[in-house]
Amino acid sequence: MTPLESLALSRGTVDRVTHRRSDKQWLDAAWADPRTRVLVVTGGRALVRFDDDEHVELVFSSPAEAPPGVRFLLGQDADGVVYFGVSADLPAPPPGTRAASLREVGVLLGDRDAGLFTHAVALANWHDTHTHCPLDGTPTIPDPGGHSTRCPADGTEHFPRTDPAVIMLVTDPDDRCLLARNAAWPGRRVSILAGFVEPGESAEQAVIREVAEETQIKVTNVRYAGSQPWPMPRSLMLGFRAEAPAGQAIGVDREEIAEAHWFSRDELLAAIEAREIVLPPPVSIARHIIESWFGEPLPSTWTEPQGPVPPGR
Ligand SMILES: [Zn+2]
Hints:
binds zinc ion, 27% strand, three-stranded mixed sheet, four-stranded mixed sheet, 20% helix, 6 helices
């Protein structure tokens, strides 16, 4: 099994300069530098410019143009340019630009921009939903670099939250792949199985538990395949492969999983071409794991759903 490569949201190139996050003097100087670029994010969206159908780039503000909001340091590139994120209402889009989400443009952005956008959305989502101390309810104060907050009443420090989730491609002894349709998904969308890691559980244990819960299949030989941040709102998708020993029948609850089936490579391709199923979009780790099993890129996309979608699918 080769490791997953080119995951859309795992491509960041900007140095996070973590040692600068508490350096107030350095941060103030960076914010005063007109070369500094600010990415404004709200509700998981930022302004982007479409050069053509294939290439998209982020639209940055200067510090002077940036609206007021919670500010956080994203990093510094090889040319010394410093990047900040700000969680605030988006500025009016200049001509040729519009607001877009990571799902929409994650695969179209260059490596630098994909990493900056992913980092900024993850931090903005945390700031937007973790505004008060969990111990006593006092409004917290972000630290100068925006990567932690402090409660002024009891002095406790609070850090960004990431929820680990597992997503796994299960194969049977004939090397067929298990694909399922979530009951909440419309139409013909199918994907591999996924679920959140529970407290006190290893990722591998979560793989075994989730596959059994969703399909009654007991898996062995759980192997890590790669990971991708999925800040929608705060997941880290941990990709795995797992094997299902022979002689097991699929059983689905029909409440969470509507149906699940084994697909050989030929059957998968035939089902896609007959438009009987639709695979997850290229931005997802699910798509990459399926294609790594299949051996090459597959046709078929699923159009962007509106509303909440299960993690990483
Ligand atoms: Zn407190």
